[in-house]
Write a structure and sequence with these properties.
The chain has 163 residues and is mainly β. The protein contains 1 helix and 10 strands; from the N terminus they run αββββββββββ. An 8-stranded antiparallel β-barrel has the order 1-3-5-6-7-8-9-10. Strand 6 and strand 7 form a beta hairpin. The radius of gyration is 20 Å and the shape is elongated.
């Protein structure tokens, strides 16, 4: 009886480990912002809020459940104070097969002479459709900004999808 209990317990543990196994993922995405109109808060110079949407294309796609990411839209809310910002938002992505996923992100950015220089932070999957329905996972990002108004972001993390 003890042996049967141990065998059943081991099988249950192995199944749980399989269902929660995380797969590493990485990619590079390039984005271009729409118009940004900061709104001054009025308490001190350089303190403002802004909301911006950006169109993005993967130059090195993420591969999730055998499908590559293709393009998406970032919606970012940013609180700026001097040369730093606190950013949070959502990325909604369309994959090569038409499936979608949504990721939430938050981080910080720096600027120089009113132009963004870099950003970094964390992200987590919110939901997905099709092959990525029920996706879970998280990771980190680091972005650098070009003089032409585009920015390139390196994304690393891990994910799991229900079997």
């Amino acid at each position: 009886m003890k042996f049967r209990f141990a065998l059943v317990s081991l099988a249950a543990f192995a199944l749980a480990a399989t269902l929660s196994a995380q797969t590493k993922v990485s990619g590079t995405i390039q984005c271009k912002s729409g118009p940004v109109t900061p709104v001054a808060i009025g308490d001190k110079p350089g303190h403002a809020y802004a909301v911006v949407q950006s169109e993005c294309t993967w130059t090195k796609p993420l591969e999730i459940a055998g499908v590559k990411s293709k393009s998406g839209t970032d919606t970012i809310a940013s609180e700026m104070s001097g040369n730093t910002s606190s950013d949070h938002g959502y990325h909604v992505d369309t994959m090569e097969n038409g499936d979608h996923f949504t990721a939430r992100f938050q981080g910080t950015g720096t600027s120089k002479d009113g132009k963004p220089v870099n950003s970094s932070g964390t992200w987590s999957f919110v939901d997905g459709s099709g092959k990525v329905k029920g996706i879970k996972g998280k990771g980190m990002y680091k972005g650098t900004f070009g003089a032409d108004g585009t920015w390139t972001t390196e994304v690393v993390g891990e994910y799991s999808v229900p079997q």
